Amino acid sequence: MKVAVTLLLLLFATTHAEHRGRAYVRDKVCQEFKTMGKDDFRTLTLIMNSKKFSNATFEEISHLVREIVSLAETCCTDGADPSCYDAGSSALSAKSCGPDSPFPAHPGTAACCVHQGLEQKLCLAALQHPPRQLPHYIEPSNEELCQAFKKDPKDFADRFLYEYVSSYGQAPLPVLLGSTRNFLSMVSTCCISSAPTVCFLKEKLQRKTLSLLTLMSNRACSRFTVYGKDKVKFSYLTMLAQMIPSASFEDLSPLAEDASEVFAQCCDSVAEDCMQKKLSEHTAKVCAALSTKDERFADCCAGKDIMQNYFCITALKPATAPKLPELQKPTNKHLCGDDGALHARRYMFELSRRHTNVPDVFLGKLYDASENVIRECCSAKDASACLDSKRQQVGAELPTFLENANQFCGQYNEMNFLDFKKRLRDSMKKTMPEASPELLTQLVDQRADFASTCCPANSPPLYCAAQVTAYLESACKQGSCALI
User: Fold this and answer.
1) CB-based contacts of 229: which residues, under 8 Å, 6+ apart?
2) Which domains does the chain have, with CATH numbers?
3) Which of 103, 101, 119 is nearest to 49 (CA)?
4) Per-residue pLDDT, 475
5) pTM, entire model
């Protein structure tokens, strides 16, 4: 299905249609339909729409896939009327705008349907759901896989593609294609094997690298989509700083720069091996720079599979914060100079290596606050007065913010989960002596769920940012917190 990746630029990249017209889109789609064949075309259409509409139901995706494939099948035959494709796509748009549309729902549909003709089609084609923050796909047991496969192989494949791709839809398209194709091949091979258990064990070991690549690239690209290149660079820098706080800014900053460049190049790339190749090269750089400085990095880098080495590195827990000199804050002149962002980033790097258990999402709040302050104050009439005022406000909030986050996630990182929940319950009993057992259980479960989701370095950014914002809003008594 190598040629399939070009369909990404044909069915759903609307700029080509806008600049080159209807005939261009029809000709290119039909060319791919004929080159790929109906089955591969249908599979890719299912993958692309599951990726694009990650919150849609399986039935909604199935309806859309049937319509797109039917349109191509009808209008891409030799001798088909040149107006067939345009008329068919217009009918699809009209169906999308109908009150009983069977296609994926989207809050932007109504605004698109105000337009007519090509403008309406372009608007509808540009709609997509935000990525799922928490992947929902859970791989069934070998027995369950084979039972579903033998019952209806086609339905099994369709449902797997929908579930898997909508869960890991931020992974680059070539990674998703390779991973899903490999999985379906494994199932079809092992479910007819005379020794399925042995077969699955062997195949799953062989696909471990591909599974990790899918998981890690989905996490990284989700973060890149939400954060953008500069904030991803900051996030990666502070992650490394907390894992190896003895390393200097000069040691780690080039690695963070390199990581952000990898994700910028590969998250939306249709090059078949971009992510694996670039991430492998990046991992080699990390290992070369840090394995001699830290035993844990050396252990991770000793493996023969470089993707597993990268996974090992990103899964490292924060190190114990070393004793470091008193932190010097950047001056107003530094913040409003040409390198203001660099000075702010260096300061937050120093904060992160002194508070190694403060999770990424909390540090992200500091990053956003610093960006806002620099943007607001450095363009103000009296920049120094503005910065001094902000320093005073943030200075009153920051120590408590850092200490609470560091202590909470520090306990989560150091304790097993059951002991952590017991500590939470004991703490809440003291602060809420009147609470009923049911309420205590509910609150403990909520906080434990937050810890398990948002304390790790690879936490889902949008979900955790919303949780932290809610916490800050409840903690701010006068509604003027600088960190919100």
Assistant:
1) 260, 263, 264
2) 2-126 (1.10.246.10), 142-216 (1.10.246.10), 224-314 (1.10.246.10), 332-475 (1.10.246.10)
3) 103
4) 62
5) 0.86
